Every structure is written in C-alpha cells, then in structure tokens.
Amino acid sequence: MSLIGVFDSGVGGLSVLAALRAELPHERFVYFADTAYAPYGERGDDYVIERSRKVAEQLIQEHGIKALVVACNTATTAAIHLLRAEHPSLPIVGLEPALKPAVATSRTGHISVMATRGTLSSAKYAALRDSFSGSATVRAVPCDGLVKAIEGFDTAGIEMLCARYMAEAGPFGHATGEVDTVVLGCTHYPLVKSQLQRHAPPALRFIDTGAPVAQQTRRVLASLGRLADGGEGGLQLQGSGDLAVLEAAAAHWLQRPRQTDAAMPAPIPT
Ligand code: DGL
Asked: Which one of 11, 186, 193 would you pick to mutate in the ligand 1 pocket, going by the greatest count of ligand atoms within 8 A of its CB?
C-alpha cells in the first residue's frame, strides 16, 4: 500500500498532517519538510515553483506516492497548477486561506487574513478575496518573519511577532467595524495559535484549513478507490534539513514519541 506524500517549506504542514492522521488513521504518510530552503513566503514565485517541483519529484521517485497534499498555502498558490499539469495521474490536494467559512460565519463582516507575503500578493489570493467583496471586508496581514521564528523555535521572536501582527489584525470585537474572525492562511500559524490568542478576546474566532483539507483528501482518495482498507497507519519523516530537528519538531507539535534512530528509512507505525 503506497504512501500519501505531504510537504511544506518546514514544520508548518505538521498542522495539516495532524488533521490528516485524525481523518485517515489507516493511511501511511511521508512528510517532507523543505527546511533547508524555508521560508518560501518571502521569496518569489520562481523559487517556490522550483522547490515544489523538486520535492514532488522526490516523493514520487522515492515512494511512488498515491496522492500528494501540498500542506503550504504559498506553494499551492505558486505551483499547484504546474504540479497537476506535470503529474496528471497523481491526485494533488492543496489549500488556500479559508475565506469562505470565515465570511459565512462572521457576524460583523470584518475578517483579517494572516498569511505570508507570497500568498497575499498572489493573483490567486486577489481573485479569492474579490469573490467576497460584496459580503465582507477582508484585511490582509502579511506576517513577515513569523515562519522563520517558528522554524527556529525562537520563543521570544514568536511572542513579539504574534503581538505585532495581532495588533495589525484588530481591532477585535462584535461591534460594527470590528474584526470577529481571523483566518490563519499559513500552515505554520496554527502551531502558535495559543500565542496569538493571548492578544485577542476569548470570543475571537480563528479558522484554519487542516480539517477541511483532510476531508477533501479522503473524498479524493475514495473517488479513486485508493483509500487504505484498514491496517495500521504510519508516518515517515523526511526533509532537506536536519532530520533530528524535524523529529524534535514533530515530537513537539504532533506529540509524537521521538525515534531512537532519526534516520530510520522505513515507515514508522504510529
Ligand atoms: N507554511 C507555508 C504556508 O502555508 C509557508 C511558510 C513559508 O515558508 O513562508 O504558506
């Protein structure tokens, strides 16, 4: 039974992987963190396209993956159309900032979208935002530096940047003109949700895309008859950076026990 490939520029996609594993407990995953080339979000499209192509190619060559989840808003925006064109028989699931559920549930009609500069400056995002122009006011908050701080376990940097960007995302509340919903449009940001929440009233809603992407992956696999039919799920970690650091990040973010042999190539039953 082949694996589902999942990739991101670094550890951010682990927030999507957690949702995938909850939704698809019998599946085996290989997660690729492109840490040596992170962050993607403050570089141009050409860079992100090249990296996305290389990572997808590696997952296909090494694992013959049966599906690919692009667990990165920036890579989805820049490269998913090319990946789909180049690998027509591989189902590829991507993600975009969750504006639709945010607009559907916001009471004030004022929403802030926190994402990378790359995502927010793309034509794809502009088209998404404009499709809601009659129904909500959407503020873009590019969070420069936050991915780098998360990748580096830089606690002080994370604190400082969360405070800064939440100040830009507000004012929060339920009165006219106040923001009641924040879209986490980068897969790294759910990992620091508790730090973001410190700068917001308890009623502020945060929306991310982990669960809907996992459900979409299930639908796609089911429609192709590629769902695992029972058995133990598994997870293999891989990346362009230090595998021990990725193991530590996965242990931290997924509450996954550390492996004694970080370089172990075989899928690890979970
Ligand atoms: N986690 C990625 C995203 O969802 C990108 C982070 C980055 O490398 O800048 O956009």
From this structure: 186
Q: Provide the residue type at 264 as one letter.
A: M
Q: What H or E segment, with its residue span, contains residue 137?
A: strand 137-142
- Asked if residue 256 has pLDDT above 60, the reply is no
The hierarchical CATH code for the domain 99-208 is 3.40.50.1860
**Which residue spans of the chain are classified as CATH 3.40.50.1860?**
3-95+211-264, 99-208
Peptide bond connecting 39 to the previous residue in cis, omega within 30 degrees of 0? yes
Active site residue 186: yes
Q: 266 near 236, Cβ under 8 Å?
A: yes
Q: What is the pLDDT of residues 132-173, one digit of tens each?
A: 998 999 999 999 999 999 999 899 999 999 999 999 999 999
Percentage of residues of the chain with pLDDT beyond 90: 87
Backbone angles phi, psi at 257, to 5 degrees: -60, 140
How far is ligand 1, taken at its centre, from the CA of residue 1, in Å? 30
Mean pLDDT of 78-93: 98
